[in-house]
Design a protein that fits this description.
By secondary structure, the protein is mainly beta. It is 9% helix and 49% strand. The strands form 17 sheets. Strands 11, 13, 14, 15, 18, 19 and 20 form a seven-stranded mixed sheet that branches. Strands 22, 24, 25, 26, 29, 30 and 31 form a seven-stranded mixed sheet that branches. Strands 43, 45, 46, 47, 50, 51 and 52 form a seven-stranded mixed sheet that branches. A hairpin with a 5-residue loop joins strand 80 (987-992) and strand 81. It is flat. The two termini are 64 Å apart. Mean pLDDT is 84; it is low at 1-24, 1069-1079 and 1109-1134.
Length: 1134
């Protein structure tokens, strides 16, 4: 009673402690998931949150540390919320200057910030919370990795620093933004307007990182009306178009680009931001027209004095209030003759005198703005000189869509003088020119017949249908003037010789392709006397078409400590490039190794002291060598080199090289072990097994040793010692055995495994498995493949005479029978102080595993080991001990699945002087092969071949007699088949299932009659057959028996002999039988009378027999089918 009360108190105490432990919270610390890629000079912020403490309102002290790539196991203290002197000296200055801060956001969260990142800030950051409670339960630190990369964002604007426009004019500005970052990033770009007197700039238009356009505040309406646009042109050019400038647009305009990267938590972060140079925009107010119905028309000529063959350009400008809401027409006139007219809908019409010149392309007119129109005549003739005017008139549009002309308004006249040419000036140029991207374009224009001063204008158009635009001009005084589009380009026009003009355009891109024109004009006393021009087609090949990057290596599969040489081959012409080496260790992390810039500067990333760079110039290529000195597993991964070209103020990335996998393998182990192969000892004695290393160890070698025991094809770990000599027991070693085993290391090195007071169960194969650990060049430890040696330990008991019957005992049985398997001790069972542990083992026919069915302990405890597959068999077992030396195993109601091999294993035990059980001996019987069968197949059917010739009026039976059956419990399923003599297909016509269900398979149920007069007799009668029913008939019998393991099962299938039936039509039978019957008709009558008499006698005898057999079994009535309708479908059971 006292013990019982004590047990209850213990249970209650354990239960309370469990509830107390369940009530404790688990501390959890988390930071942002890495790696986080940030740019040199940019800020870094890392949030760190803790949860699970008993108090949420108490402020937690948190510390930040870093492990740098060059020393991944050495932690450097940075900053702490609870200790101002926590940081190491390398970070003290930055912490004191507030460049590095750690701020509490809540009592349980902090924000770690670095205002300006340095290259040395790359590494693994650790956030740790100081535990102020008495217990530890949870995670108190979390880490994230930060990668510091170079800032490669480039932003520039080629526009002039100051621009002046009139109100209503159109403005177009371009901005180029690009990046050379290896990681996947997005760019966003914003155009800003900074007005005088305002602190902050206003965004005009922005293109975000997802390529979505957004107008700034105050510009929404103009964007919706199409007056403000932001277009991306090419890879890196962003163009801002403002169709109608307003006075409020005056100020400083600039573009700003931002580079974004996506962190592993899928949030986007700005890593770089740069602004282009500002452009000052001045907008002047336009002349106000006092009368809303009047127009102001102006005319101007690009040149008033021309020579025959030159271009005449006349511009007209129309001004009026509410101009965009009104329609008007405009025409050019010379000497009151209309040259061309542009109607209110923009349609061009030409006067009859100039229609021919339009067809020849000499006259062109177009509306080039809301207020501006232009007429071009080229080449001009002497008859084109005179006074020109522009005429404009308003057009009112009615409800029917028709236009009504209003008052006409003319401009002032413009005098144009055209003189005839007498010069022999001619120009010669190369027709086609090809140049590679990034190179210099040089065009030469040869001039012949020079008499006076010359000027040249270089022009370009991108397509044949486009108009020529100016690139650069060189006047007769030697003054050059760049066009606005080429103000920021390196372009120059020179005259190296009297008859030669050259155009030089540096760093060309594919967008510079097109048709270039050299227009040379001859001047005399500030008057152009003649001009000639020639064109050349220029094609700029993109860099990726002539620069090829490939990566190769002679030794990409190396052993730890060996050197690797990677070669990045850049083929093509010599152009300034930026080359980046990168390493991808896994699918999500891409690390920069180094970047080699075009000016020779090298930027290294992280811990790269294992790498060296070498450059070799060859005739058609440049080879960049990346050398890995003493490769370790950290240098394994996919390497790639990437090339970019800086052209026109932006980085153009070329297709990267192929990826090259570098595999760093551990060296093959040269470890050699020696040990004793076999060892035999007596029970209750001590033993020692030694495993010695005989090979020459490395200077850094360490060894991890594991001793395993193999018994019955199963290995279990006994003892293990890691490379730091920490010894642990295997999980399968019970605490009671741990005091008897030990391991120690001796000089050599040798590893000794000791067993005290050995038992019989200690016998088996002891495996000494040794793993050698080495240090790689980075100081990281790695292991080689294990080497093992085996010692076979046999523990015997002296003078042991325990012996079991060894004879094999084949034991056939039928299912359902009682089976008894014998296990007899032949000798060694006479002493009353000996006790026995008996176990019956079982191996199934379809398995190689041996399992324990039942076990009788030497203390008398009977147990059934848990085994789901054998639970049904274990429930029918009976282990008994009728005599002191007999342990038979009985199986009740044997199943077919009980078949297999049975063995009886007996262990002999005896109490020692200390009262402990000691195993003295053990033995196992020979295999007992048990075979359980359901029944033997003895099914046989009467096979009798018959032939019948019958008429249509005659019925014929198809008998099916069973001669023998396998069991008295058998049930039968009978199927009758029919096939034509000329065919091979057998058709089922009728089936009788074993549950007495009948099925007509032929669709002739009215012609079939089923009979079952006796248990082994089945018949099917065919009524009134037709000639087409002729053929072969037979039956098929399936014998079914109930099985204890599988339910009903099919045991055998047999078929009867064939019944050949020929059915003749009535006329045929008569024709055949009449000649025969005429002569013997009386004999036939006599024979029929005798047959009928015998048939009556047979039927009477049959009725008497049937009444005796089954007492009038109703299943034998042939007319049973007529009393009950046929079932045309088998039941679900069948």
């Amino acid at each position: 009673m006292k013990c019982s009360l004590l047990s209850c108190l213990r249970v209650n105490l354990i239960f309370c402690l469990g509830l107390l432990h369940c009530g404790e919270a688990i501390v959890h610390t988390e930071v942002q998931t890495g790696p986080l890629y940030r740019v040199v000079g940019s800020p870094l912020s890392i949030s760190c949150n803790v949860s699970g403490f008993a108090s949420d309102i108490t402020r937690k002290d948190i510390e930040f540390r870093i492990k740098k790539p060059e020393k991944p196991k050495f932690e450097i203290n940075i900053i702490s919320t609870g200790d101002q002197s926590f940081g190491y000296a390398v970070y003290t200055r930055r912490v004191m200057s507030k460049e590095i801060t750690l701020t509490h956001v809540t009592p349980n969260s902090v924000l770690f910030e670095i205002q300006s990142l340095e290259k040395g800030d790359e590494g693994e950051y650790d956030c740790s919370v100081i535990n102020s409670e008495s217990t530890y339960h949870g995670t108190y630190s979390a880490t994230t990795t930060v990668k510091v990369i170079d800032n490669s964002l480039s932003v520039s604007s080629p526009a002039s620093t100051s621009l002046s426009y009139n109100e209503g004019d159109a403005l177009a500005l371009t901005c180029q933004a690009s990046t050379n970052t290896v990681q996947h990033t997005h760019l966003s770009l914003v155009w800003y307007l900074h007005k005088d007197g305002e602190d902050n700039a206003r965004p005009i238009m922005s293109l975000n990182r997802d390529f979505t356009l957004s107008p700034g505040p105050g510009f929404e309406a103009r964007h919706q009306a199409g007056l403000i646009r932001l277009d991306k042109m090419g890879e890196a050019t962003y163009k801002l178009n403002m169709a109608q400038l307003e006075l409020s647009d005056q100020g400083r305009i600039y573009c700003q680009a931002q580079e974004w990267i996506q962190d592993p938590d899928l949030s986007w972060y700005t890593i770089a931001q740069k602004d282009a140079t500002e452009t000052t925009l001045n907008v002047e107010a336009r002349e106000v027209v006092p009368d809303t119905s009047s127009l102001v028309v102006r005319i101007s000529a690009q040149s008033e004095t021309l020579q025959e063959g030159q271009e005449l350009s006349l511009s007209c400008n129309v001004d009026s209030q509410n101009l965009r809401e009104r329609f008007f027409s405009l025409a050019w006139l010379r000497a009151s003759v209309e040259l061309a007219r542009i109607g209110p809908t923009g349609i061009l019409s030409v006067g009859p005198e100039y229609s021919g010149r339009v067809k020849e392309g000499e006259l062109r007119a177009a509306r080039i703005g809301d207020r501006d129109y232009r007429l071009i005549l080229q080449p001009v003739r002497t008859e084109d000189q005179g006074e020109y005017i522009c005429r404009a008139w308003l057009q009112d549009r009615g409800q029917d869509g028709a236009f009504t002309q209003q008052a006409v308004q003319d401009s002032s006249s413009q005098l144009v003088s055209i003189s005839a040419t007498e010069s022999g000036l001619s120009v010669e140029m190369q027709n086609t020119v090809g140049v590679n991207e990034g190179n210099r374009l040089e065009l030469t224009c040869k001039v012949h017949g020079v008499k006076d001063q010359l000027s040249v204008t270089w022009q370009r158009k991108s397509t044949a249908a486009a108009m020529f635009t100016s690139v650069i001009s060189l006047t007769q005084e030697g003054v050059t003037e760049k066009a606005g589009e080429f103000m920021s380009r390196k372009v120059k026009a020179t005259r190296p010789a009297t008859d030669t003009f050259t155009l030089e355009l540096d760093e060309v891109t594919p967008s510079d392709s097109g048709v270039y024109q050299c227009a040379v004009a001859e001047w005399k006393i500030n008057s152009k006397t003649n001009s000639q021009s020639q064109v050349a087609t220029v094609t700029v090949a993109p860099a990726d078409s002539f620069v090829a990057v490939s990566l190769i290596s002679r030794n990409s599969r190396v052993t730890v400590g060996e050197n690797v040489e990677l070669m990045c081959r850049v083929r093509g012409p010599r152009i300034p490039i930026t080359l980046t080496w990168s390493l991808q260790r896994d699918a999500s992390t891409l690390d920069n190794i180094l970047t080699l810039y075009s000016d020779g500067a090298i930027s290294w990333s992280g811990d790269q002291h294992r790498y060296q760079l070498k450059v070799e110039n060859k005739e058609n290529e440049v080879v960049y060598y990346l050398l890995i000195n003493g490769a370790s597993r950290r240098e394994a991964g996919n390497y790639q080199c990437r090339v970019s070209v800086f052209l026109e103020n932006f980085n153009k990335k070329l297709p990267p090289s192929n990826k090259l996998a570098v595999l760093v393998q551990e060296p093959v182990s040269k470890l050699v072990l020696t040990t004793t192969n076999t060892l035999t000892i007596n029970i209750n004695t001590d033993t020692e097994m030694k495993c010695s290393v005989t090979s020459e160890p490395s200077a850094s070698s360490r060894y991890a040793v594991t001793w395993l025991l193999q018994q019955q094809a199963e290995n279990k770990t006994i003892l293990s010692s890691d490379q730091d000599a920490l010894v642990t027991f295997g999980p399968q070693v019970p605490p009671s055995h741990r005091q008897r085993i030990s391991m120690k290391r001796t000089k050599g090195p040798s590893f000794e495994f000791s067993i005290r007071q050995a038992r019989i169960s200690d016998g088996g194969s002891y495996i000494c498995e040794v793993v050698e650990w080495l240090q790689d060049p980075r100081g990281d430890w790695y292991k080689l493949s294990p080497v093992s040696k085996t010692t076979e330990l046999t523990v015997i008991e002296p003078a042991n005479d325990l012996s079991l019957e060894k004879n094999e005992q084949p034991s056939p049985a039928r299912e359902g029978d009682e089976v008894e398997l014998k296990c007899n001790v032949m000798s060694g069972a006479s002493s009353p102080s000996l006790f026995y542990k008996v176990a019956w083992l079982y191996t199934g026919h379809d398995s190689s595993n041996t399992n324990v069915l039942v076990e009788l302990d030497h203390t008398g405890l009977l147990s059934y080991p848990e085994n789901q597959k054998l639970r049904a068999l274990q429930g029918r077992l009976r282990l008994s001990r009728p005599t002191q030396s007999s342990f038979p195993l009985g199986i009740q109601r044997a199943h077919e699945g009980d078949s297999g091999t049975y063995r009886c294993q007996v262990e002999q035990y005896q109490l020692d002087h200390e009262g402990h059980w000691q195993q003295k001996a053990s033995d196992t019987t020979g295999p007992i092969m048990l075979t359980v069968k359901v029944a033997e197949n003895n099914l046989s059917i009467v096979k009798e071949e018959k032939s019948l010739n019958i008429s249509r009026s005659q019925d014929f039976p198809i008998p099916c007699h069973i001669a023998n059956q396998s069991s008295s419990q058998s049930e039968f399923q009978v199927t009758w088949f029919w096939r034509k003599e000329t065919e091979t297909e057998q058709r089922p016509i009728f089936r009788a299932y074993r549950n007495s269900t009948l099925q007509d398979r032929f669709g002739k149920g009215d012609q079939l009659r089923f009979g079952h007069p006796l248990p082994k007799v089945f018949s099917l009668t065919f009524l009134k057959p037709r000639p087409e029913d002729s053929g072969l008939y037979f039956c098929e019998v399936e014998e079914w028996l109930p099985s204890l393991s599988h339910g009903w099962r099919k045991l055998a299938v047999e078929t009867s002999g064939y019944l050949t039936v020929n059915v003749y039509a009535e006329g045929d039978v008569k024709a055949i039988s009449e000649p025969e019957c005429k002569s013997d008709i009386w004999i036939g009558i006599l024979i029929a009378f005798v047959v009928c008499s015998l048939l009556v006698m047979f039927l009477m005898l049959l009725k008497i027999c049937r009444s005796k057999v089954s007492g009038g079994n109703k299943s034998g009535q042939n007319l049973w089918v007529e009393q009950y309708p046929l079932k045309t479908k088998p039941s679900e059971e069948d």
